[in-house]
Amino acid sequence: MAVRTQQKERTRQAIAAAARELVVGNAEVTMPAVAARAGVSEATAYRYYPDLVSLLRETVDDVWPAPAEMVPLEGVTDLGERVARVATALCERTLAHEVAVRAVVSSSVARTGERRPAHRFALIEHALATMPASTQRTELATRLAVVISAESLFTLLDLCGLDPDAAVAALRGCAVAVVAGSG
After folding, report:
1. At CA 155, angle to CA 140 and CA 67, rounded to 5?
2. Cα separation, 148 vs 144, whole angstroms
3. What fold, for 3-61?
4. What is the pLDDT of residues 143-153, one digit of tens each?
5. One Pfam family name from the record (predicted)?
């Protein structure tokens, strides 16, 4: 491998590592903050990653556990309880990395069409794994995606003024109500 190619790879890895460190530390996650942490200029960071969402989508998936690791559901047969556990886990994970999640949501909303990480879908599928594939399951997953989300959690925190525990309880209750109403 050529020296220049090796240097580019080291720079790319430094930027990715800096992003991961900021996310794990729940620190401010912006391109300037990532660049400073990586010891590169902001322009250099943008040469490797066109925007914050692209950077985070590519570099931090490995800090998000697989659904079965995050929410063990073996032996849990009640669909409402399965969904409640998944909703709680998503909220707790979102709160643990709130600064980064808000940055991704904000950046992706500002850039229409930018696909951001959507871990909720894998978690919802994990919760619904005991249901046979059907139109009803697909519709339920769609309804739950509206409720079990960082955006819904932030609405409860920011606009409804709930403290984190009350927000998690409200979101969990809404998710269970969606399941109960789908029957």
Report:
1. 45
2. 6
3. Arc Repressor Mutant, subunit A (1.10.10)
4. 999 999 999 99
5. TetR_N
Position 41, amino acid? S
Report the C-alpha gap between 23 and 99 in whole angstroms: 8
Q: Say what the pLDDT of residue 165 is.
A: 97
Q: How many CB atoms lie within 10 A of CB 151?
A: 14
The answer to whether the CB of 11 falls within 8 A of the CB of 40 is yes
Longest dimension (CA), the chain: 62
pTM comes to 0.80
Lookup: tokens for 45: 């960071």
C-alpha–C-alpha distance, residues 115 and 109, integer Å: 10
Distance separating alpha carbons of residues 148 and 171, to the nearest angstrom: 7
CB 13 within 8 A of CB 33: no
Alpha-carbon span 93 to 64, nearest angstrom: 9
Three-class HEC string of 143-167: HHHHHCCHHHHHHHHHHCCCCHHHH
